[in-house]
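Section 4.2 – Deliverable D4.2 (structural model, holo form)

The reporting period included a commitment to supply a predicted holo structure for the target in complex with zinc ion. Inputs used:
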Amino acid sequence: MEAVAFGYKCQECGEGTVLEREIPEYHTKIRGYPFVVTNARLGVCYRCGAEHFAVQETDRWEQLFEAAYEKLYLQPEEIRLLRNRLGLSMEQFAFLVGCTRQSLYSWERADRSRPQSRMADLLMKLVRESHDKGKVDVLRFLVQEAAQFGIQLKLGGEGQASMREAISR
Ligand SMILES: [Zn+2]
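Output (structure tokens):
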């Protein structure tokens, strides 16, 4: 790998020098999602501790992120299988989930360069869950999905929900 060039004066404090440092497990956020980069290389000011990032290195992080999270999305063959199990043509399935036929076509391509949007992915997963199990607890399902991305969501109003249940019994 190419060396990341640091060694310049820190703009934060104006006094220290930014030196390259390799961090075995660097905790960061990429596109809003928590992510741990293995052997991250960044510049750290020896005086104030400010962190500096080289574009080529953060590009690498983005690629690592995409590779790691791509597995969490429905894969092309899973989408095609779901559609076939529902007995729908591409046009019909696209209408069901509110996308264009072209989008669906690109998501089902084995050599696709990027997966469907997160929103489309969640909707298709819900469709699959509903087809497999009938009834789906949508909120619970979405919270579990978020957890896979390292996002812990605590929903309010659960007390109210259980109270409604108690009253209807
Ligand atoms: Zn500094």
